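Lab notebook, entry 316. We have the chain sequence and a SMILES string for flavin mononucleotide, and the next step in the workflow is to get a structural model of the bound complex before anyone spends time on docking refinements. Request logged below.

Task: model protein plus flavin mononucleotide, output structure tokens.
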Amino acid sequence: MKKKVLGISFGRKMSNTEVMIKTALMECEKAGADVKFIRADDLDIKDCTGCIACVISLLHGGNGNCHLKDDFKIIDEALMECDAVIVGSPTYVLSPTGKFKTVCDRLGPSHDISFRTNAKENGIKMGKDLSKLPDERSFKKRVAALITVGGAMTQNWLSFAMPTMYEFTMSMGIDVIDKYEYFGAMAYEHVVGNKKVMDRMIRLGQNVAEAVFSSEEDMSKWRGDEEGVCPVCHCDMLTVVHNKNKVECPVCGISGSLALADGEIKVEFSEEEQKRSRLFYDGKLEHYVEISTKAVGSGQIPNKKELLEKYIGYAE
Ligand SMILES: Cc1cc2nc3c(=O)[nH]c(=O)nc-3n(C[C@H](O)[C@H](O)[C@H](O)COP(=O)(O)O)c2cc1C
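Result returned:
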């Protein structure tokens, strides 16, 4: 079966992000993969309404599909089909674009691999037909590369972009094998005139191709430039948790310890904590368990209607 690599851009048509993704896709095609490109701006994707029908459905052995009818299905189908995805978003106000976040919200709970796995197992126990269970392709191993583009000359004007981009792949359990932050984009009329970045995109494409054509065991190997502070997501962001020397990786949700050694900051995440990262199945399963055992339905507050009365229409 031919390997399929998907590129999704949240940038402007034919601008930096799009051309960077297409450069990487061209390398994947050269290596023998089928490639497909989606420009998010061409699609009508509605905001998540927060109805949590996807979660309820998955908790009851259903398929978790969203009730909204729009072009999200184009992204969904392409993600289910692919073996690798290259996602790129411009940095807008330090983070990926609003549409990027909209797509992440639509992917979030409904595509969570631990929710889908449990829904499938429970659905089978309930005797449900396979067609009523989560899409079988959700369970296929896939990899990703993430790209963000910032116009600013200073890298910290992109600070939340890359960590936030993990939201795209996290719930589906797609392993990120390379990432690249292009800052200073406004110093070039177009990225086509920036050889360093274009060369890096060729390498990013080659890294993705190498991953999809390697054994399942080697597929998820990290191929990016830097190891980063967190050994799981390879990002450099940390949360200070105000508990002795403890810090957390905000992407993975795991705890580490910080120390100063010879004037240098050293951060360590134990093997056990690394395994708990929400980028891995075990970390997602912890979340599935907390939601499936502790989230309450209606009826907990008997006088809820009465308590809410004074808020109806207030100051609207
Ligand atoms: C609303 C808006 C906010 C932006 N905020 C940032 C920012 O916080 N940091 C940054 O580096 N660039 C920022 N930029 C610049 C874009 O990242 C830059 O134009 C980038 O090249 C867009 O990607 P594209 O060329 O692929 O469309 C912003 C641009 C827009 C339109």
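Notes for the group: Residues 95 and 161 are 4 Å apart (CA to CA). Worth checking against the assay data. Residues 11-12, 15-17, 90-94, 149-152, 157-158, 185 surround flavin mononucleotide (CB under 6 Å).
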